[in-house]
Amino acid sequence: MVMKYEMEHDNIVDELKERGYFDNTTDEEGLRDYLSQPGRKFYIGFDATADSLTIGHFIQIMVMMRMQAHGMVPIALLGGGTTMIGDPSGRSDMRTLMTKETIQHNADRFAEQMGRFLDFEEGKGIIRNNKDWLLQLNYLEFMRDVGVHFNVGEMVKKDAYKNRLAEGGLTFFEFSYMLLQSYDFLVLFREEGCRLQLGGSDQWANIIGGADLIRKAENEQAFGLTFKLLTTADGVKMGKSMKGAVWLDEEKTSAYDLFQYMRNVDDRDVEKFLLQLTFLPTAKCKELGSYRDERINQSKEILAYEVTKLVHGQEAADRAMETSRALFSSGMDHEDMPSQEIEVEGESLGLLNLLTQAGLTKSNGEARRLVQQGGITIDDEKVTDPGVEIAKARLQEGITVKKGKKIYLRVIAR
After folding, report:
1. Alpha carbon separation from 230 to 9, 161, 272 (Å, rounded)
2. CA distance linking residue 325 with residue 16, whole number of Å
């Protein structure tokens, strides 16, 4: 279903700029002209490296939703073929190889999740999987038809390859990734009439490769547009929490946990995340992000609510906000509180081991410092003795652990 929101610009390029997505393009004037008419097709690729999309992917989905609302036709390209290799961009080592079955399962899950945000009915949106053409390639024919257009000297100047070469760790296996992604663009140009590829700023080299391939092989113009990666004010790529990745699958990251993750962002990130991860009007986002007093916490709650509503629906967002407010105001238990099961082999478990095993701390040393500093409360009682043992029977019933002022976790023994 296409998202309904009040569009503030006639041309989507202006909107992408004002909301802070826009990073670079191969030809801005040509791109504006291309996107001036509805029905123009564009694509974004998603390598199926996990069984769920993450909050890091959500910025790409937001761009697709905005583009579709402006009348453009998104093509979600699932990387059933390219995931067999894995993109070396931004990596210091080679990705773990995955089976075809695992990749297909992950791609199917991606398609299901994207269907919650984009309209794929009646030609309004398209899902393709590059396994349909990449897994059938004849190597010699591919090299003659595609490889001939790529200059190795130019390729090794790209950051994706240059950094790995400097470390002595780039394989020819990964070196071929740019050719495959460029070929994806050529196939979608030929079969779908798609002339625009979008992606994060780390995809610039791959996107240029595809646009150049279309120019050389078809003597036609194609465009590339990159948007800024979702990073925090400290420059860290957004999407990691205390428990690991922040997923769009509610079974992996609950609506409450997503709400809390967004509720706890740095004050400096509020305006940017409101602009990029919600459909609130631009002026409202800037107003909410401008606060530098206690009102910034209200802005964070609005951010958390809007993102959770988009990802999991209004009912889940209402429930998450209610839970959050109840816990913050009274510390009382709530049925929607996130929980973690842990192993208890003896009759009791030391507090430090409990905190680490539950994922609240990364090590027993960190747990010890946290306890000694008064940062842990169990069932509304502050604990400052690192040597405390928690009885297994009590853990089997479940305890509520509060870390700091904002993080609550129900810990239960298996």
Report:
1. 23, 22, 9
2. 34
CA distance 203 to 195: 16
Query: What are the structure tokens assigned to 191, written together?
Result: 């079969």
Q: How many angstroms separate the CA atoms of 303 and 309, rounded? A: 10
Alpha carbon distance 278, 350 (integer Å): 43
Pairing, β 407-413 against β 399-403: antiparallel
Rounded CA separation 231/334 (Å): 32
Single pTM value for the model: 0.79
The tokens of 38 are what?
Answer: 């509805």
Q: What is the pLDDT of residues 334-374, one digit of tens each?
A: 556 778 889 998 899 999 999 999 999 989 999 999 999 99
Amino acid identity, position 114: M
Secondary structure of residue 173 in the 3-state scheme: helix
Is residue 34 a contact partner of residue 74, using CB atoms and an 8 Å limit? no
Burial of 223-256, coded b for 16+ CB within 10 Å and e otherwise, reads: bbbbbebbebeeeeebbebbbeebbbbbebbbbb
